[in-house]
Amino acid sequence: MSVAVVILAAGLGTRMKSELPKVLHRLCGRPMVTYVVDAAQELAGTRPLVVVGHGAELVRQVLGDTADTVLQEPQLGTGHAVMQAQSALQGTADMVLVVYGDTPFITVETLRAMLEHHTREQATATLLTFRPPDPLRFGRIFRDVTTDRVRAIVEFKEAAPEQLAIKEVNSGIMCFQADWLWANLPNLPIKHGERYLTDLIEIAAAEGRTVAALEANTDEVLGIDDRARLAWAEVRLRARINERLMLAGVTMIDPATTYIEAGVTIGADTIILPNTHLRGKTVIGENCKIGPNCVIEDSTLGDRCVVKASFFEGATLEDDVDVGPFAHLRKDAYLCSHVHMGNFGEVKNSRLGPGAKMGHFSYLGDADVGADVNISCGVITCNYDGKNKHKTLIGEGTFIGSDTMLVAPVTVGKHAKTGAGSVVTHDVPDGTLAYGVPARVRKQNK
Ligand code: UD1
Question: Whose CB among 123, 279, 408, 422 lies 3.0–4.6 Å from 297's, allowing a Cys bridge?
Fold first, then answer.
């Protein structure tokens, strides 16, 4: 039996009080709708169809080629939203599963169990229900008192007082026999200017068809409607990510203050210390020690690296590199194996060769530094002349003295040396010593 998945994501999400469409609010670094798209893709083996409306262009951009989209304009209810999917999906699958874009905790296992139940029961429609502590605004599951079969979903706006007392409610996740769905969607009545998808349940039950129901865990199906719920979801998802990593061999001293986004991978025997934020597509190798107080974004670290209280954006570290405290690695900082970078250093678009050392208070921008170079305290590459950026090249085994200004474009050769406080405006040949302001080559570096 094949299934097509429709994800409803056209609503405004008023309770978020945001200009950003609700489904694009982030959870552990990813827009919440992407979690639903992943689950749908895994379940069906094909791209889901997302119904977009508010902020349609933004949502489409975020989804890229992970999902197909269809526009619902204006938004006239959940039934009307599914109607927009009809021409794209009719004839493509035996079952249609409707999921909301604001339920990022829904698991493939639950969706699969629902489809199996639907097939076993030979149902026309199957609902995922739940029992929240406060069922106030949810559609009530109205069952026949004698048979206990589902007869209708009664929206809270229309519910009589005795129906409001019903504790079992509709999660919004529903599965339909496809042909029946497409034939009956046009029969939905218009209520308060909207077509409710939930009214199909009463239509199916009145025809004597089977409406099946499966109860789910509240935390899994309760939508993210406001910022308080968003924060709750963030904490819960973070705990889930941390647990997965810990079970895979990562040590966390304090998981409650360890903030790791969904796309991060970490090797076994790495230790993450408190208040560490690992973001984006960061990859960390084995046996590293990260933190406390690090923010590492879209960066790749090899094995046995040690990073303390530092900030990385788009950096790469080979194996056995140690950095910090208080270092800033910006885009395209590349530190080869056994580099040591101490406190208050900044590196941007620069490569430090194997074993290079940069202990204290230095800035390297647009530089290529050879193996075993020593960058002493306070060295600066003056890479920007106010208009353009220029390169600094430093050959292997060279010693750059404290407080040297390297006025780019400039090359300091191999096994050379600059004196403390030099301002290097001209190239320094291999094996020479230059010092002074401006620096002159004085003698061989012996
Ligand atoms: C809906 C259900 C209700 C259920 C509740 C669970 C209906 C009529 N009611 O309530 O039984 O208990 O969900 O949360 O279906 N959407 C569109 N286009 C629209 C309207 C909504 O795409 O025109 C999308 C929203 O973006 C959202 C989802 O559908 O992802 C649900 O919309 P929402 O307004 O939250 O549902 P309710 O009407 O509160």
Answer: 279
Average pLDDT, the chain: 97
Residues of the chain with pLDDT > 90: what percent?
Answer: 97
With vertex at residue 432, the alpha carbon angle to CA 426 and CA 437, rounded to the nearest 5 degrees, is: 45
CA distance 401 to 421: 7
DSSP secondary structure of 197-218:
TTHHHHHHHHTT--EEEEE--H
Tell me which residue has its CA closest to atom 22 in ligand 1. 10
Q: Is the pTM of this model over 0.85?
A: yes
Residue 446 pLDDT greater than 80, yes or no: no
For residue 216, how far is its CA from the centre of ligand 1 (angstroms)?
A: 18
Pocket-testing residue among 37, 51, 78, 157, ligand 1, by greatest number of atoms within 8 A of Cβ: 78
Distance, C-alpha 265 to centroid of its chain: 12
Strand partners, 283: 265, 300
Residue entry with tokens 């998945």: 5
* Cα separation, 410 vs 390, whole angstroms: 8
pLDDT tens, 196-215?
999 999 999 999 999 999 99
Tokens of 62: 């975020």
9, containing H or E segment:
strand 3-9
Active-site choice (340, 360, 390, 415): 360
Q: Mean per-residue pLDDT for 213-230?
A: 95
Cα 54 to middle of ligand 1, angstroms: 14
Q: How far apart are the CA of 303 and the centre of ligand 1, in A?
A: 48
Confirm whether 426 is a catalytic residue: no
Q: Is the CB of 76 under 6 A from ligand 1?
A: yes
Q: Tens digits of per-residue pLDDT, 250-304?
A: 999 999 999 999 999 999 999 999 999 999 999 999 999 999 999 999 999 999 9
Specify the residue for token string 């029969």.
187
Is 140 buried (19+), middle (13-18) or exposed (0-12) by CB count in 10 A? Answer: buried
Q: Which two tokens stand for residue 133?
A: 């502590």
